[in-house]
Structures are given as C-alpha cells and as structure tokens.
Specification:
alpha+beta; Killer Toxin P4, Chain A; Phosphorylase Kinase, domain 1; 4 domains; five-stranded antiparallel sheet; Protein_kinase_ATP_BS
C-alpha cells in the first residue's frame, strides 16, 4: 500500500496544474448588497439560516448541472439561495467557485439580508424574498473585455446571427440546463473572401428555472446593451442569464448547437480556426498528458485500495440488519450508524435524490402539502406522470432520524387498504426522504373540523370512515404478521383518498411487539395531547390498548365534529371526553352530535358509535375492548354493549371527580395488564419491551 507521503508527493504536481488552470478564469467581477430589505442582527435565526443555506450550496455533491437552489428556515427568517455556474465547467470547479462567492459575500455584505456576487464562472445570490423561477435583470452589468479592438460591420453582423442562434438553443433547454456555446468565422459579405483573422466564440446561458419565454426575454435584454458597452469582447452577467463573446477562445469545450453555419453555407466556417503548433509544443503536451494520466491512475488505485480495506473492515465488525427486525433491541447508537446501509425492505424502492428534487420542482413552496415535527411534506410528480407524496426529514431533527428509520422498517412490511402505502425512501448525504402514495383529499382533521368542508361528510361516510380506521388498526394489532402499536393515532394522521376512504399514516414512533408481549415502557413520552392514554402520559406504558384509547377519541371527534380540546360549555370549560360523559349520564347524548348530522336517519348508529367511543377511552386498560371486539360492536346492532366507566379528564387535572385524583390516574397492576393481554393474544403473559431512550 502506498504511504500517505508518497500519495502527497504524487498529488502535488496535479494540484498545482489544476489550481493554475482554475485560477485563470476564477475572476470576481462585482457584487451588490441590497440595503432595501434591511439588516439582520448578529447571531440571529436569519444569520444561522443564511450560513446554513450557503454551506448547503457549495457542499452539495449530488447535482452535476451547475444549478443549486436551496431554502432554509421558517418565515420570517427563511433564506432562499441560488448558485449558478457556467455550463462548461465541471461540478468540482463549480462548487469551488460558489464557496469563494459565499466567503466574499458574507465578508462584504455583512448583516444585509440580500446579496449577489458574480465570478466569471458562477454567480451566487441569497434573499429572504422568493427568487426561484423569477426572471430579474436589476443587478446585471457589462464588462468590456476587448476595449481597444473595434468591431467592424462584418463582425457585428456575424455576432448578431451567432447570438440569435445560441439564444434559440439555450431557451429550448430543459429544466436542468439552458446553455449553448459555439464559434464561427467572421464573414464579410461585401468581399469575395472571409475575414480569416477573426473567429467569434459565443456563450449564452439562462437559469434552468426560467420558462422558454423568460429566457428569451432575459437574453434579448442582455443583447440590447452590447453595441453601447462592448467591442470585440464582452461579458454580461445578470441574476437570470449571462452572455459572453470574444474573438479568442475562453470556454473549455465547444459544443455545437447546430450542424448549419450562421452565415454562408461553407462547411469549414462552423469549425474553430486551427492553431499551428511546433513539434516541441506537441512533445511537451504529450509529456504533460502522460504525467497527469500516471498521477491520476496512482491516486485512483490508492483510493480504491483504501476503500476496499474499509469496506471489509466494516463488514467484519458490523452484522447486517435483517429484514425480520432482529435488530429491534440494538443499541440506538448502533442503529444511527447503520442508517441507510441496510434499509432494503420488501418491495420498497430506493429513490435517487435528483429524481425527487426534479419531481418536486426542487422542493418548491408551491408543492408543499404540510409541515410537522418530522419535517415537510411535498407533492411530487415522477417522469411517468405518477403522483407521490414526499416527507422530507428536517436536517436538525435528531428524533426525526430515528423516526425515519423506524417508519421504513415497519411500514415497508405492511400492506392494507386502510394504511398509506410506503413506496420507497431516499438516503443521500444529510437528506432523508420517505416516498408515499399520494392521497389527494388531505387529512381527516382538515375536513371534519372545517365549518364548510365538514358538510361533505354525511353520516354514511363518517360511519364508514370509523369502521375502516378500525379495520386498519385491527390489521396492525392482530392480522398482520407483525404486531404494531401506532402510538400517535389522531385525525391528522388519517388521510382520505379520492373516494374518502381513510388511510392511517405516520408510523414514525410506532413500536413492534413480540408474540408474547402485552405492553412496553418508555422514558420519553412522545405523541399528541388529547389522544394519549393516561397510563402512557403518567408512566410511559403503552400497548395496543393505548391505540384503542386514541381510536375512541377519534370516534367522538367524528360524531361530534369537535376537537378533543378545551370546550366552553356555559360557564364551565371541559374537554370533549368530559362533555360526552356528562351527556351520556344525563341521557342527552344526541345533544353532542354534529348539528349537520341531525337531518339524517340512523340515530341508533350515532348513539352506538358514541357508546363504543366511551368504552374505548375508559381509564382501566382491562376494561377497554380490543379492536376485534370494537369492529363487532360497530357492525352488529344486536351485540350487547357493556356500561362504560368514567373516562380520564386529561385536560382538567383540577376537576373535582367522584373518586380521588390519585386513583383516577392509577396504573393497572401487572396482573391487570396481563388480563388485558388475554384480549390481545390469548394465553400471553406480561412482558416489557424495554425502555425507549
């Protein structure tokens, strides 16, 4: 194996060669700090967001077409940034240029909220205004590269023809690149021969977020100033497009935009002029190429050898994560280290980040569906026209990292019509994405609690939604080969498809139960207030009966059209469980039914649903029915229902209850929990799953 000193010695010549070549064109032209948008204070959220988004741009390794668009943070401190490189440079040069731009802008624009900087090879801008997909020319500028060389009419006419041709090609580009370059010889139509001393090299480019029309408008605006500002060499730099032409070559490669010349149809005119080189020059060129080839080969071989050693060392130290969840009891630090290495589950696809970015228009705000503690959810459309939903983990979410891995490993094995289908995932550097089937009618809470939209859910639809949610839970608890406790069941985690069929989603904090396990314990209680069972809130104990409690709350919310939050009832403030219980005892249960539903029939179904809901939210775990019993109660009008006991009043700890508060929130003993376990898995004994960290 080659020592690091040898590798360093071999790399130094190549480093100096590349650095010299890159520095020839890494020229900082100008910058502008916009004082109109105001300043931010040092150490503020805006500064943190700005520094984060700039680092994302120049450190991103996944985009290779020279256009980087990122947003970071929340309003009013959200920062949008665009990095844009000339189309003929490679990704490494691009990121180096953007890094230099970021350093200069931060230094020169200090605490101003908007800035833009231009190198010959790249431009970088950031702002708290929306800048993606917006054509702008307000910070543009011209640079006369050949100030002492006057252009004649033949040069100008050839230039106009070339620029028009390049503009057409660039504007027709796709969403990744709108770029064109070409060289032509100057033709003097007044003479019988061409002016062989001049060749025009042209390059035009638009940011790929512009439409074809916007690209044309930007370039036309740029072309209009050439006759006033420039002669035989000119550079135009703007936030949305750039143009350069010169009578000497400046770009790295020549990519013909068409097979036809811009002037008289002579085949030789589309070719760049030949350069005469001496035999000595050729010899030096060959030696230089040979030296570079040797250095590159040695470096690649060394890196490959090191990579192979690291790979086998890791294989030796770390066992593979099995698809059967044998690693559920692994130390959480080991789980974090393994994230993404062995996450292939069932038929899940591992999507490429560039594919998802393209599907969501670079995670644009227009495609945002919602946001939660995990991160942001976007709608996306794949190249085949298939709609998907993408949940994007927030980069600063440590809990989200664990939830991401948990959801892939659990949801990837679940298949039921009342569960949202997980199609795949994406792991790319810091990015963690979950890709689901797209469910068009948003979540249940979005409709059921809206005073207008709730009218779309008549009683028949609501009753079907209740029963379908119960079927999905029954599958999780009893019918799937994995027994799953959801732990965060609520109306916002019930999505509705185009036919208003419910689908349970968000398994980020779900837990897998063994066949002989009845409950688990956790030190960290995570969930949503109003839906969590009392034993979970007080003691971190969870089981399938915790999900039953949450389902009971959902039933009451659907029938009553009210959230389980504090509700003013005359002079008293109560939660939905308290109001439902009070009316149940008084025989006035119909008073709490959503007024929209009073015009329909099936009063007995509504009363039965409230009855089942109260049975599900009982304090005593053993008294709550399991999901198979719940479905039987909902589907049968003859199945006898027991009398419910008083529910816990979780939102009113100071309420005077008929029994002491310490007894009201008592935790079932191990034996009583074991009794409830007999309803989950017959003959099972109580067993803890350990402590969640």
């Amino acid at each position: 194996m080659i020592s690091w000193r040898c590798l360093l010695f071999l790399l130094l010549p190549l480093f100096f060669i590349l650095k010299t070549e890159a520095s020839d064109q890494l020229i900082f032209r100008y910058h502008e700090c916009n004082q109109m948008l105001g300043n931010f204070t040092g150490g503020s959220a805006y500064q943190i967001n700005r520094d984060t988004v700039l680092e994302q741009i120049y450190s991103d390794q996944e985009i290779d077409y020279g256009f980087y668009n990122f947003s970071y943070g929340e309003e009013p401190d959200k920062v949008n940034a665009i990095g844009f490189c000339r189309g003929d440079i490679n990704p490494e040069e691009c990121r180096g240029c953007l890094k230099s731009s970021a350093t200069l802008l931060v230094d020169r624009c200090g605490i101003q909220k908007e800035a833009i900087g231009y190198f010959d090879l790249c431009s970088l801008r950031y702002s708290n205004d929306s800048i993606f997909g917006v054509m702008e020319t307000k910070t543009s500028n011209y640079f006369n590269i050949k100030a002492n060389t006057r252009a004649d009419d033949a040069f100008n006419q050839t230039l106009l023809d070339l620029l028009d041709e390049l503009k057409t090609v660039a504007a027709d580009g796709d969403s990744r690149k709108k770029f064109a370059e070409k060289s032509v010889k100057v033709i003097d139509e007044s003479s019988s021969s061409s002016n062989t001393n001049d060749t025009i090299y042209g390059l035009v480019q638009c940011t790929p977020d512009l439409s074809k029309q916007e690209c044309n408008e930007c370039l036309d605006s740029a072309f209009g100033g050439f006759s006033r500002w420039c002669m035989k060499g000119c550079l135009y730099l703007g936030p949305s497009c750039s143009v350069r032409y010169d009578n000497s070559s400046f770009y790295k490669t020549i990519v013909p935009v068409t097979e036809q010349p811009t002037a008289a149809p002579q085949p030789s005119q589309t070719l760049p002029p030949k350069t005469n080189t001496t035999s000595t020059g050729k010899g030096k060129g060959r030696k230089l190429k040979t030296a570079i080839a040797i250095v590159v080969a040695v470096v690649v071989a060394g890196i490959l050898l090191v990579g192979i050693c690291i790979y086998f060392e890791r294989r030796r130290k770390r066992p593979e994560y099995t698809a059967e969840f044998e690693g559920q009891d692994k130390n959480e630090d080991e789980d974090e280290a393994e994230a993404g290495n062995n996450l292939k589950v069932g038929d899940l696809l591992q999507f490429d980040f560039a594919t998802i970015r393209l599907a969501t228009s670079n995670f644009s705000d227009a495609n945002k569906l919602g946001q939660g503690g995990f991160g942001t959810v976007y709608k996306g459309t794949l190249s085949d026209g298939h709609d998907i939903a993408i949940k994007r983990l927030a980069n600063n979410s440590e809990q989200g990292e664990t939830e991401f891995k948990n959801e892939v490993l659990l949801t990837g094995k679940l298949q039921h019509r009342n569960l949202v289908k997980l199609l795949g995932f994406c792991l790319q550097r810091k990015e963690r994405l979950l890709i689901y089937e797209f469910v068009p009618n948003k979540s249940l809470d979005y409709i059921i609690f809206d005073p207008i939209k709730r009218a779309n859910l008549n009683w028949e639809r609501r009753f079907k939604i209740i029963k379908d949610i119960a079927r999905g839970l029954l599958y999780l608890h009893e019918d799937s080969r994995l027994q799953i406790v959801h732990r965060d069941l609520k109306t916002s985690n019930i999505l509705l498809d185009e036919e208003m069929n419910p689908k349970i989603t968000d398994f980020g904090i779900a837990r897998l139960f063994d066949a002989n396990q009845t409950h688990g314990m956790t030190k960290t209680v995570v969930g949503t207030v109003g839906y969590m069972a009392p034993e979970y809130i007080r003691h971190g104990q969870f089981s399938v009966k915790s999900d039953v409690f949450s389902f009971g709350v959902i039933i009451l919310e659907i029938v009553c059209g009210q959230r389980n939050t504090e509700i003013r009832d005359g002079e008293n403030i109560e939660d939905l469980l308290g109001i439902a219980w009070k009316n149940w005892k008084a025989g006035t249960t119909s008073d709490i039914v959503d007024p929209i539903l009073h015009q329909g029939f099936n009063k007995n179904e509504k009363m039965r649903c409230i009855h089942v809901g109260l049975l599900c939210v009982q304090e005593d775990i053993a008294m709550r029915p399991n999901m198979s019993s719940v479905l039987l109660m909902l589907n049968s009008t003859t199945f006898p229902l027991p009398e419910p006991s008083e529910p816990p009043f979780l939102m009113q700890p100071k309420r005077a209850l008929s029994i002491p508060l310490n007894e009201q929130y008592s935790v079932p003993t191990k034996s009583s929990d074991s009794g409830s376990g007999s309803q989950i898995t017959q003959g099972s004994t109580s067993k803890s799953s350990g402590i969640d960290q």
